[in-house]
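Backbones bend. Our protein:
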Amino acid sequence: MQEKEYSTKTWSTHELHPKAKTECTVNFIFTVDLLNFCFWSERGRDDRFAVEYVGKRWTGYWSLVAALKRALDEEIPITSSDFWQDENECTREKLRHVFRSATDEEIPLFDDRIACLREAGQVLYERFGCNFSNCIKEANGSAAALVNLLVECFPCFRDEFRFEGKTVRFYKRAQILVADLWACFEGEGYGRFLDIDNITMFADYRIPQILHTLGGLRYSPPLDHHIRQLRPIESGHTWEIQLRGCSIWCVELIKREILRQHPEAQINAILIDFFLYDTMKERETDGEVEIPHHRTRSI
């Protein structure tokens, strides 16, 4: 991370991430993270869902970002909550056009993504004056307060499960949204959060994969076999909860060790997550995948 100089500035260096520090960017980030879930495919690299944009073919998370930027270039107001609510204008056909693929595989969980847009549009209309920036203002500079607002007001952000008689709350996308605002705006303006270090890593399917690859996590033989056989794990299954929960704790231990050895380091779980995700994607591009990611379909 020191060699690559990972910091909040790294976020904006990605080709498709917005560079402007405006309210339009806030709306773009909200839309991205509203829909930022489940991009894995059972097909090969050349056949999976992909978006062609600016002369390149994008997959995974970047296919979503590319699709939204392409839609805005085509003057489709895909980041407008007014548009999401207008079912005469924001039709299934138009959304299929927005998320059209360069292959014959459509974006995973298309109906769930439509439902997220409709729900969020309604909540923003009823609660925040059709403007997500009002939600940020209500959080009053607190990352934790914004996460709580998101999961309280927007049911699709309420990422929680029952595990061994207790409720386990991950709030992955809510935390990603806060982290992306913080990183994009470099801790200022819409991204100013005094308690940003309270945000954990984002418990998805890529971080457990890279943590296992680097020796931070070890799987039980039955789980290891299940994942290597590319067999799905149901959302909320005990294996999925443990994979996600142990990944959060593993990143926390990594952060503590970095700070123990380098007390001056400007580090938190967000930056470690960004670094691990990018590292896993680089290894995948280079054909260096020691174990597949676990496969769970969920938002």
